[in-house]
């Protein structure tokens, strides 16, 4: 046992010496020289990353953020313009409908006026044609009456001449008159 105690004492002595050489950090298992070298290496890596990696990445992210903000703003502007255009389109359509209705009403009024005018003209033309037809019928009637009078006069003269040449018998005169009338009727029908 004494050797074991001696060995433990030696180990404890070595630990005390190592602690005195490395300071208080040695008790934690940290070597001060290695720690400072690692700290220096970490600072160099941090500086390199800061200079050549972090700043460009941050710059790219900021540019991307600005681009997104511009896109969002542009989308909002486009949306507003679309809404304005829809409103304007509705106004234009409403105006066009009202103007179309107005034009249709005016066209109906003009068509009615034109219809009345044409009907009036047609009635006057019909009246004129009817009046002209009546005039022609009247003229034809008068012509026929004149011709009938002339024929009757010719028949009477012919009957009187035959009656005078043949004698004054009433039966004979009636018969001659009927014959002359029949003769004139057949010639008038053809």
Topology:
Layout: H1 2-22, H2 32-166, H3 170-189
Produce a short descriptive summary.
This protein has 190 residues and is mostly helical. It contains 3 helices and no strands. 93% of the residues lie in helices and 0% in strands.
Structural summary, described in words:
- By secondary structure, this protein is mainly alpha-helical.
- It has one domain (31-189).
- It is 93% helix and 0% strand.
- Helix 2 runs antiparallel to helix 3.
- The chain starts with a helix and ends with a helix.
- The relative contact order is 0.02.
Note the main attributes of this structure.
3 helices; 93% helix; 190 residues; mainly alpha
Fraction of residues in β-strands: under 5%
Contiguous uncertain segments of 5+ residues = none
Spell the H/E element sequence.
HHH
Main beta sheet: strand number and arrangement? none
Euclidean distance between termini CA atoms: 182 Å
Helix content: over 70%
The helix tally amounts to: 3
**Any idea what the radius of gyration is?**
70 Å
Mean pLDDT: 82
User: What's the domain count?
Assistant: 1
Number of DSSP strand runs = 0
Gross morphology is rod-shaped
Query: Would you tell me the structural class of the helices and strands?
Result: mainly alpha
